Amino acid sequence: MADKVTIMSSGGSNNEDIRIITAKKNMLWFGIISLSMSFAGLTSAYVVSKERPDWLGDFELPPAFFISLFVIVVSSVTMHLAKRAVSNEQNKKGMMLLIATFLLGITFVFFQFKGFSEIIANGYYFTGPTSSITTSFIYLAVILHVAHVTAGLVSLGVVIYNHYKLKYINGKTSGIEIAATFWHFIDVIWIYLFLFLYFVK
Fold this sequence. Notes:
201 residues, mainly alpha, Four Helix Bundle (Hemerythrin (Met), subunit A), 5 helices
């Protein structure tokens, strides 16, 4: 009888864990859809504003943004490999790849701000008499994206800590799966923004 109670209790616990994981994943996808709509609205406003007489049709993206594109694509690859290594319980390899992803994320943020400095060096500020609607949109889009990259870095930090504590064993990898999905999402958003800003002038 005691064994039966233990099994039933264990089954209930597993069902509760599954419900929690499902709820977290649903919240993640709700957030992804909401953020996608926000960026879509921002880029739509960008297109509409092209009709303004003060629009800078010849504005070129700063070189730092090209570098940041390469960096974030590489970070997506390392994140994918990290998740696979952790899932296979290759703990040392997984940790190295997670740290590499984290450092690439920081490097990405660095080059985003370097891009800002390059825009400013060309005489365009976010506000004031030397600003333009074109560069103001770019500042806004990039700052909004950097904020979400920062959130991604925080989640990566949590994942690195949990992996260090060996919490992703015996198939319990939902935490890193959720973090990886969000990281790939913010990577895709930057690729979209970069291509949009590069081609839509």
